[in-house]
Amino acid sequence: MSLSARLVLFGFALVLCTSAAIGWGLTQAATHDLQVNLEARGLAVARGLAVRLAEPVLAGDEDGAQRIVDAVWEEDDVARVTVIDDLGRLLARRDFGLPAFEGDAARVVYPVTGPPDDEGMKATVGLVRLRLSPQGLNARRARYLGRIVRISAAVAVGGLLVALAVGLALARPLRRLQQTTGELREGRYGDALGDLPQGGPREVRALGQAFQQAVAAIAEREAALRATNAQLRETEAARDAMTHMVIHDLKGPIGNVVTLLSVLEMGSLEAEDQALVGEVRQRCVALLRTIEQQLDLARLSAGGVTAQRAPVEVGELLLAAVAQVRALADAQGFAVQVQVPDEPVEALVDRGLMERVLVNLLVNAVRHGASPVAVGVAAEAGGWAFHVEDAGPGVPADRAEAIFERFNAAGPGRGTGLGLALVRLAAEAHGGTATVEGARFRVWVPA
Q1: Beta strands per DSSP E along 164-216
Q2: Is 3-155 assigned to CATH 3.30.450.20?
Q3: CA distances from 193 to 69, 171, 405 (A)
Q4: Which residue of 23, 40, 265, 296 lies most exposed, with the fewest beta carbons within 10 A?
């Protein structure tokens, strides 16, 4: 339920309860007043009859007394009248056919007195007994209660309108604040500043002003952050361009150095010198491989390399990757187990990228794992899952994601941290994933 609806319902319920309490109080007061009026009216009618009946009662004129009693029919609250003289003799009686109260509460007895004597005293010469009916007074009470109901209904309707007006007056600026919050979340600060409430109650206006100041401060800070980020991006782009240019320019000279060292190594050198030249050549080859990986990573990160898929026989792909690391594995004393499917199976992958992926994983296992190393592939979840696993302790669980980041090796002295970054980018270029669990690396690509 919205805030405005809640406010309207609360205000209406408050006014309704108040009007009901006032109506109940007025009804109780009206009931009490009507009972008092009924008794007072009975005394007034009896007194008037007693005055008019004094003469016929003194004279014992039954016909005259009956005529006076018959005239009481004009009083719509009188149900029965009985007149007796001082000896208890019935002089007049009339039943008007109205329902009378049963009990003493509705009966009025009033004395009929004669003229005062010499001492000013009036002697009682008869009695007027009067039974009253609440019919007339009940009709007046019904009309009175109807007015009370109409007044209460008018108060309730007026309260509903007031509650509706107050609810809308309070809810409208609050809804605008809520909309402004959504615009802030989307970064539309100009729209948010334009939508802030400027009217309404004092507290809401104060809230809108405070919110406006906060929005202005946030917009100013974000503008400063955007400018800073733009400068950082420009600096980073310039740095990456410079790094890429330097790395690219190093590739050619280092390749030439490797070639010259290979020629020199094949020459007539002393054994000690030949070993030294061979080690220098290997270091230069490793440096050249690092440069090539860095260039590949830069192209993959920038989207310059896309997977050129073609049917590749997976067993042949595995054997080709193992052949490239066979010399390194033999030198380290590692046994490499290739798990190929029993029958030739083709996968739709980029052969060059996937071969690089498997070579990097095998080199990583030989350099940092334990023998034996197993490499294989299996159909899984609508794709192909390549895996490389060694017998070493593997990667700690808290490093399972960080190890695929660039320059984030598994530990000090454990490589440059480029090979696994290239593995993940190549898998993502295929629309797949690269993960590690312990010593088992898994690369999944969709079929």
Answers
A1: none
A2: yes
A3: 88, 18, 41
A4: 40
